[in-house]
Amino acid sequence: MQQEGRCRAYFGGPDAAPGRLRDLLAERVAAVPAGGAIDFVTYYFRDRRLAAELLAAKHRGASVRVTLDGRPRSPHANDAVIRMLTGPDGLGGGLRVVRGGKLLRPRLHEKLYCFSLPRPAAFVGSFNPSGDLPEANAELVREIGDQDRGYNLLVELCAPALVEALACHARALHTARHGPFDRLWPAANRALRCEDVEVHFWPRVRPNPVVALLRRAVPGTRVRLVTSHLSGPSALHTLLGLARRGLALEVLVGATERRVPARGERRLAAAGISVKRVLHPDGLPMHDKFVLIEAPRERCVVFGSFNWSEPSRRFNREIGAIARDPALYDAFAARWQVLRAQAEAPRAASPGSEGAQR
After folding, report:
1. What pTM does this model have?
2. Homologous superfamily of 7-188 in CATH?
3. Which of 126, 255, 289, 311 is least surrounded by Cβ atoms within 10 Å, i.e. has the fewest?
4. CATH code matching the domain that covers 201-344, chosen among 3.40.630.30, 3.20.20.70, 3.30.70.790, 3.30.870.10
């Protein structure tokens, strides 16, 4: 059994059973008894079976709150689940659909899943429950990317104080007004810290904690970045600056040129940064988002919902964690090897064949 307070990484992908991460969430929902609490925050939610599990939890006496984006990039993707959760036997006030205005288009892009019982746990990562069975809209899956079979991750955080703080954050998102001034929230600019994990939120007024961490790294530090999205001047400026300072950078990215433009890829390569695309012959998405930082006296891993893009940096609601747990670092380092092997494998897929993932 996992030790109390430790972290555990779960990876989905073509090397795992289809739907591994959605099944993990479904199992945790089914285990919450009467009197327990479930808090979901997510961007895409199309999984009607998982929605049915949430309704069953509510009907047996659990407190269930779901907060999701009502206007994702594929604007009607969440409609079927929203109808389920707002129906006569739905969640009532337990559902919050954040539609937001058009000004600056902030999106609720966090992926956070909290459970109070039978043991406290909060899952943070890149996975949206965006698949559905039976699947009635194959074209939409191609647009979003098949996240039940593609590369994705969730990290289970178990320290009770941290889980409670994250559940409080989810409840605050559930009741708050959302708009272009979210960055001014005091809570958005404070870190949650417990043992060897710290959790940060975006948008924010204070400096980006991940960028600040990287800029403090000494020359020779090895940085391995995995991201589905790498675009915009800020991300390129940051990575090029790190290379000039003598950090050893390796980057694995997703297949779509819309999310990782070839021009930026060429600029990074010209600066001596290794950039490889993780392509799968079936067009499955690479949706992982993490950074491994290996310095002479410290190793840490960064993970969460945030992309290396202008919307994530400036506008979107995002969550990210910095962890110094040695076992968690080793788990992510092993995942890096899997992704790198896939990036270097002979393939028939071409850039652009992967879904436009989020």
Report:
1. 0.94
2. Endonuclease Chain A (3.30.870.10)
3. 311
4. 3.30.870.10
